[in-house]
Amino acid sequence: MNPWMAIPAPVLLSLLAAFALTIVPLPSAIAPARPEWVLLVLVYWGMAFPRRVGILVAFLAGLFLDVLQHQLLGQNALAMALAMFIVLQIYPRMRVHPLWQQAVVVAFLVGLTRLLNIWIQGAIGFPPGSGLYWSPILTSALLWPLVYHILRDARRRWLLHLT
Amino acid sequence: MVLVALALMALDHRFYQLQTLRSILASVAYPLQVAVDAPIRAGSRILDSFSRHEQLVLENRLLRSDLMELRARQLRFDALQAENDRLRALLHTSAQATERVEIAKLLAVDLDPFRQQIVINKGRLDEVYSGQPLINAEGVIGQILTPNWTSSTALLISDPGHALPVIVARTGLRALAVGSGNPRRLHLRHVPPQEDIEEGDLLLTSGLGGRFPPDLPVARIVSVEHLPGQPFLAIAAEPLAALDRSREALLLWTDTPEPERRPAEPE
Questions:
Q1: Secondary structure letter of residue A28 according to DSSP
Q2: What is the pTM of this model?
Q3: Residue B113: closest CA among chain A residues belongs to which residue?
Q4: What was the ipTM of the complex prediction?
Q5: Is any Cβ of chain B less than 8 angstroms from the Cβ of A16?
Q6: Which residues contact B174 (CB under 8 A, 6 or more apart)?
Q7: How many CB atoms are located within 10 Å of the residue A13 CB?
Q8: Which of the residues A3, B47, B121, B207 could staple to B214 if both were Cys, CB 3.0 to 4.6 A apart?
Q9: How far apart are CA B148 and CA B57, in angstroms?
């Protein structure tokens, strides 16, 4: 089955919205705490449609994010693919977790991607030199319930027939 | 997948062969960036249209007097340029670089908050090239990092990975202005403590790197400190251009002639 045929339009649209939110200018005081929108959206759809939104989709989304943020090509792609791999391992359990517990898992995943990113940036010589670098872990976890409810409503309205 | 990602990163970091891939993906990203930028631009335009009539008249009057003054200066500048060319011809040195200037708009999109980079709406189609200087009316902003087809990413002088060869206008002392990650700060590296440098000194580009034309204003020194035990001075400077607030920038094309190996022999 061609994976691109199997990805429904609402998933792509929500990813697009996540990309837009990633580059919307914020006041510089809170810009470092911008949640990892793309990862949040990917985690939800990976949990909902593990056979459609898999590692390849996460990899391509990460690659696009690299271009958008002008980072090393493959940096976010690697992080997103790895996070998606973990989601695909634990999605049956994650589905039955209460929301706050899911948020903890999300925080862990964001922390993991951040760790990979800082490691790679350190290797090429530009480590971000501020503790604020880790703040998206908190904001992403706090915003997870919001993302979850929006995407779940979208799924129930348009994609109830899919698995 | 992991291997592909690692290979991509290695290729991107060591070589420049992924430029085309990046350009292709970037032209997909460009509509998204414009879409994000559009409402913000529209918002400021609406604010403009609500500004009061008297204010506009006042601004118009100011601009007109500015224009008069600049025109008068331009006249003198033309005369001086002609004289300079004549003198240079007498000395058998090459004429000064001819310049072309074009205005580029900065797109209001955020990149990595820990790097100082911006996106402008001119690309390779407008003959933008990598390393091209980017200035505004106050001073140097940065240089082009990667030109895509219709947009380009530029590195600001305040990025921690950017170093700009400068001279102190008052003394001619050469130094290197390195970004700090803060758009209001540059640091001067490797200036020994016995050098004559003080607060308020103006920094100009020295043109030594070959990328920026010489004598563009860059920054003003705000503090000079000598920490005991340190071999060099700790010098902070503030860029003259408001790096984090400008919406427009000027792209500079300089056909810098090949630097001459030895100075022309006087006859």
A1: T
A2: 0.76
A3: A32
A4: 0.73
A5: yes
A6: B165, B166, B167, B206, B208
A7: 11
A8: B207
A9: 40
